[in-house]
Each structure stands twice: as C-alpha cells, then as structure tokens.
Amino acid sequence: MPPLVEAIEELHGIDAAALPPSLLHPTRPYVLRGVAANWPIARAGAASAPEAIGYLKDFARDTPVTVSVAPAQAGGRISYREDLQGFSFTQERAPLPVVLDTLLRQLDDPAAPTLYVGSTTIDTWLPGLRDHNDFGFGALQPLASIWIGNRTRIPAHQDVPDNIACVVAGRRRVTLFPPDQLQNLYIGPLDRTPAGQAVSLVDFAAPDYRHDEQRFPKFAEALRHAQSAELAPGDAVLIPSMWWHHIEALDAFNVLVNYWWRQSPKWMDTPMNALMLAIMSVRDLPPEQREVWREVFRHYVFDADAQTAAHIPEAARGMLAPIDELRARELRARLLQALNR
C-alpha cells in the first residue's frame, strides 16, 4: 500500500465499558486507539501468541468451526482463483481447539498454509469470553463475532451494518474507502462470493494499473480517497455502514473481535435483496423505460417524505404508510407470492 494513503482519524481515551452514543451512529471512520487494551485477551495478545492461544482455549468449545485453508503461495489472500471460476481456498471443519493448536505449531513456519476462521459467533463457540472482554453498547445488542488466523488478506468489501472491529492479538492493517468508490474498486460477482459479500478483485499487495479491460487502472483513483491504519492489540476501528474495508493480518497469529449493528429495526430486510430484485426486473429494460423507473424510485424511495402520500387518506396508504413489523410481514408475503408464481 502506498505510504501516502491518508491516516484514519484517531480517538483516544474512549471508555470501552460505555461507548459514547455518537460512535454508535457513525458517519465517518475512526481508530479507537487502545480502547480495549485492558481486556484480558488483549493483554495476552500483546504478551505473545502462545499466551493468547492459551487464553482462548480456556473458553473454546470442542465444536467444529469452518476453516478456510489456502496454500502458502496464495499469500494469505482469501479470494478467487485467477479465472474467477472458483476460490483460492477450500473450507474444512475442525474443532476450534484443534485449529488453535495448529496455528500454535505453525507460528515459526514461513511456508505454513493460510488458516482463517472467519465470522464465528463468540457466544456460541467461546461462551464466557465476553464476560471480561466486551464493549458497553447501552441498549444496542450487536452481533459479536471473532476472526482467528495467521497472515491473511481479506479483499475490500462492505457490510450493511455499522461495525467496530477490535484487534486483540497480532497486528492488522486496515484500509478503508468511502462508499462512492464502488466504480474504482472493481467489485466481483454479487452472487458467488468468498464469504457472503462481494469483494474487490484488486490484489492490494500487487495492484495492476494497466489500461486493459481485465485490469484495474481506476484503482489509483480509489487510493486517492483511501484511509488506513495499523492496529495493535487493544486498538479498534469504527467502520460505518457500507464503507469498503480491506483487512490484512500482519503476524503469524491474529485475532479480531467485531460487533455489527444496524440503525434500523431487525424486521427490515437487507437492501441487498432490493438490489438483486432491481437487477432482475429493471436493469435490462430498454433505456427509456429505465429512466422512467429511475424517477419512480426517486419519488417513492430516495426522495420520499411526508408529502409523498399526503394526498391519500391515511387509512388507505398501504405500503406508502410508514413500514412497521406487521406491514413488513405482509409485504414480504406478497413478494414471495409474486416471485413464486
């Protein structure tokens, strides 16, 4: 990564036990430097990899987790094969203590394969870990996950929820891009992804800027808008919804704890489903019809306000009324019926 990438703004002195409300409605990223430095797992991670592994094994259930495995020549990148017809890794199932022991044995092996346990629910596989290693989110109830591996490189992707990602062992380099860099990041397939989210096809370790339809010349423009930071045990990064993030684990053993939460009710559907439906039903219309639907979406979705349906009696507004859980269920049922016709 070029050295001139802008640094992510840092905040110091944040109380992990009571995160400020302003951080729970983020519009820009921050590094929360040292926010979790007093967590026992972060202290163990700062001491040594074996100490961190031992600490995790005290909580780890002997239940299989999904492990992504890539050969050493993949350079830790969890992505696609060159032809995009498959992935650069395979997936196996193994008990978490076994994975931790394997990582411990391979700490000093430069030719070790990549091992990556991603997005594993802490309360299911490491019950009790959060009793002394947790953030205070007030009334929010975010999903808490753990990510364990060696030197991995996770391609740039975006998530719908807001996210706090906290390094507790090893070091990680995080590179962020605002959502408007979509066209410059060369995103791969939406429906066949390495881990559920569409990812950038650019290898950040060796970006290819050639002006060729198969290469990535506009990535140089994306880097002009990038922000980056290196995180040590106890440091966290706050990633707002839909910001692109590339995460590189720099050491032979790395652990990250993250929390996801949305600014909308749980019963609201993900916008990605709306995108998929729009691709299926709108994208391939004739251009003049697409323009008509652009105006329809603007009116009913993107610029909708209290005046959009003000001319309709309140009791008759149907889906144009504010959506609540009951109305969402009714709409979902209607959509399913229509899609299954």
Automatic annotation (TrEMBL):
Residues 115-276 form the JmjC domain. InterPro entries: Cupin_8 (IPR041667), JmjC_dom (IPR003347), RmlC-like_jellyroll (IPR014710). It holds the Pfam family Cupin_8. It comes from the Bacteria. This is Cupin-like domain-containing protein.
